[in-house]
Amino acid sequence: MKQMNPDEAAKRLHKTFGVSEDEVKAALKEKRDFRDIGQAAMLAKISGKSFSDVLAMKTQDKHWPEITKELGIKPEQIRAQMNEISAERIAQRGNIDKDKALSLLNSGYRPMDVSVAAKLAKLSNKDIQTVLDMKKINNRWGDVAEQLGVDRSALRPNMEKGGFHGHGPQGGPPDGEMPEEN
Known about the structure:
Elements: H1 6-17, H2 21-29, H3 34-47, H4 51-57, H5 64-70, H6 75-92, H7 98-106, H8 111-124, H9 128-134, H10 141-147, H11 156-160
Helix pairs in contact: 1-2, 3-4, 6-7, 8-9
């Protein structure tokens, strides 16, 4: 993970979760773990509790799964929040709008697959769903790029960020089916 100074971290958490930059800086100054600060920020946003109250719940003996349960937060709420964050970051790259990215993420696609497919769709003037459907368990995104007539090197910026290695399922719903709601 890229190292951020306290000001950058505070700004990012404020933008993402609406927590006070001063509270984040204070927590960092108290040598709180950045992962705990981020987790507290997310759970505070989901639960409607204050950031400081949620962060105070985390102790050496009390871990995030217990705190999440105590706050009454369900896994679906966390997944929805994570999809929202991922959709925003994918949209910032300029290849797809946030609502479309969020729709695909909520359908079960992984953020990396949505991001790469969006880039390939834009470069090939294809629909993103068509591109997603081309990714199979037995091929790589570079193979999909070649099928679309796009140079594999167009994917390199994503690879250099430690993103993906190519093989494996794309994580989407099988045969275009929508996942069942629980």
